[in-house]
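Course assignment 3, question 2. Fill in each field.
Student: A.L.
Task: Predict the tertiary structure for the chain below.
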Amino acid sequence: MGSSGGILSNVKGLRVLAAGCLMQLFLGVIYVWSVFVAPVSEHYGWEVDSVKLTTSFMLCMFVVGIIVGGKMQARLTTQVIAFLGGATLSVGMLASGFVPVGAPWLIWLTYGVMGGLGVGVSYSAIISTAQMWFPEHRGFANGVSVCAFGLSTVLFAPLIEALLGALDVWAVFMALAAIFAAVVIAMSPSIKRPDAVAAPASHADAADAGTEQLRIGEMVRRKEYYLIALSLMMGTSLFFVLNPSLKIMALERGLTGFMATGLVMVTGVANAIGRLAVPMLSDRIGRRGGALAICAVTAACAVILAFAESYAFLAAVAVVSLCYGGYSGIYPVITADYFGVRNVGANYGAVMVGFALSSLAFPVAAGVIGEGFARFAFLGAAGLAGTGLVLTLILIGRKDGIKKRKGGSMGGG
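Answer field:
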């Protein structure tokens, strides 16, 4: 394991990481759709539930975009891929501004499908490039990158609300399209792989050392892939059970309206902290330690949320959000640890299928159970998180077995 001095001495890598972080900050707009729901519903006379469905389209296409962007890395440079993804998002935003009042469903295609696809394509190029520049500190590189992605909510939610207060919805879409296009044009040329910029040979060599470099078709034939994807699905279930009705639940548990609104912002900050802290911690204690910790803490918080009131509820929600961010920060690195960093963009997209299923299935399940039975939903989520913990333990056992058979070093760090 290298020292922090090794990170600071990697000046070219830090420049690439900084450019990627700035792009990630804008790409994270995928999580800000809730700010648009009421204004879009009012402008188009569209049912709120139909407007909310845009998020589902965007999250699904985000996963597809990660896979597509990862596959593109075999033929195109990461600079071009980052540009194409960002340009697709910008064009989708611009097209959203031209959606006629008589056909609001087109927003599903422009903002949801095009936007989500573009975000995923750029995201895959940025996180894979970051890990390649810091082979001994992949947790640090990935954590910083996805932290910027998570902080987008904190930055853009109040900014977009202010714009919506001053401009029509269509004008806000166009303004965002122009801003995003400028950032993409300025930053995407900097998203370079180490072998494209005369980086030290150890960067590329260390990235590939000691681990099979599997393609997505080879990866999905391994049992480890299913253990990782399912553990991600189970571990994030609690967040998706909680998130759709967070403010309503907070009021029911004795928080004031002001505190309930503030809790939404707290989840965004905690999410961003988890994206940075958990993968950086895993650089020191190993991926296995980091993954087991967030699975165990998530399961414990689910039980607490079933009974907690007032400030205890608030604290538990904050910890759940931190763990959720931790999943986003550590699982790309776990994917690289098991299947190699060379194809991590496409491979992580396949792992993200577990995330997509979680984001779609568990909010629906919580809605079917009903807010009056939230306690049972939380206890069910505790069981799912516990299942994720068991899957992680099985995964660790399989890796230890591989390590013994190969006689190599396959530690979690």
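Instructor remarks: The longest helix spans residues 374-406. Confidence is low (pLDDT under 50) at residues 196-207, 400-413.
Grade: pending
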